[in-house]
Specification:
single chain, 199 residues, alpha+beta, five-stranded antiparallel sheet, 5 helices, 8 strands, 21% strand, globular
């Protein structure tokens, strides 16, 4: 289930760090504390960055729009409902420098996936288990290791969800991640950093 959360921005001009995903995780965890105990360790969700009219500054993204949005996606419809109730219980939400007022929520249409799908992501995040020896090593997006790591972590998460049988897993075809080489060349040509490691 995918939803779009829409907030009124009470202090236009507020700045958020470029990588503000951690702030949203903190918000989710705060809301989870008030949800049913069954969702205490639930983590089968993902979300977009905060979208709005922005200007790039040294400190991050300056939000100049009246409203900002976040797209939230989750396997459990019940989790989404409880999460939304938790968001709208709050009159205001402090989010970095932003002061957000929950406004509306819209259900997004489900994506129709084909055999080949193009995803555009400005800041893809690849999560590696802590016990991985080379967790601090840079992995080139063109290296098979990059695609293999995403494949393995995705399959491990799917297995952890308990939603699939052994027969299901044997029917899944291995997928391949192919980066946009034109974009990577452009970034390298400008000597811009296109990868960061967070421990």
């Amino acid at each position: 289930m995918r939803i779009r959360l829409i907030f009124n921005l009470q202090n236009r001009g507020a700045v958020l760090p470029f990588h503000h995903q951690g702030l949203f995780v903190d918000l989710i965890n705060t809301i989870k504390e008030e949800m049913s105990p069954e969702f205490a360790d639930y983590d089968f969700y993902c979300f977009s960055g905060v979208k709005g009219q922005t200007k790039v500054t040294k400190g991050g993204l300056q939000y100049n729009s009246k409203k900002v949005t976040v797209v939230f996606s989750c396997l459990s419809e019940e989790f989404v409902k409880e999460f939304v109730r938790g968001i709208f219980k709050k009159e205001y939400i402090d989010f970095g420098e932003m002061v957000l007022e929950p406004d509306t929520v819209e259900k997004e249409k489900d994506s129709v996936l084909g055999e080949v799908v193009k995803y555009i992501s400005i800041s893809p995040v690849m999560v590696a288990p802590e016990e991985t020896e080379d967790v601090k090593d840079f992995v080139d997006p063109n290296d098979d290791k990059f695609s293999d790591s995403i494949y393995e972590t995705t399959m491990a998460k799917m297995e952890k969800s308990g939603m699939f049988t052994e027969e299901d897993f044997s029917s899944f075809f291995k997928f391949q991640i192919v980066p946009d080489n034109d974009y990577l060349k452009k970034i390298k040509g400008k000597n811009k950093k296109f990868s960061r490691i967070y421990t």
